[in-house]
């Protein structure tokens, strides 16, 4: 479960389609010391998803993303890993872990369920429910 300060981060990168098999092989498994650095940075629940054509989507949760980014930017292990991974990506200026395109979250089920059941009274009402209450008056 995420703490109140935690937030979700999603990003997109483009892998060279000619190198997809090698990219996947390099992640099965990732170096143990790189895994430890990701965890030490504060990132958790980290996943990578690969779409057709080499589009890579990453997701993780973190309490302080700027601090996690800074930690990894200063890590010699992450620098070695990212230097080896850089050749897989198309249209990327800089280290993959520092230059990925962030995606904007527009929906999160849990957040909306909480808002819909909040005691404010106005969250979660639907026009159909409002119409019924108008008929009763």
Rounded mean pLDDT is 87
Extract low-pLDDT stretches. 124-137
Number of domains: 1
Identify the overall geometry: globular
Pfam families: rhaM (PF05336)
Organism: Microbacterium thalli
InterPro entries: Dimeric_a/b-barrel, Rham/fucose_mutarotase
Protein name: L-rhamnose mutarotase
Topology diagram in text:
Blueprint: E1 7-14, H1 20-26, H2 32-41, E2 44-50, E3 55-62, H3 65-74, H4 76-85, H5 96-99, E4 101-103, H6 109-116, H7 127-135
Antiparallel strand pairs: 1-3, 1-4, 2-3
Helix pairs in contact: 2-3
In short:
With 137 residues, this protein is of the alpha+beta class. Helix content is 42%, strand content 19%.
Describe what you observe in this structure.
This protein has 137 residues and is of the alpha+beta class. It is 42% helix and 19% strand. It has a single domain (7-107), classed as Alpha-Beta Plaits (2-Layer Sandwich), CATH 3.30.70.100. The relative contact order is 0.17.
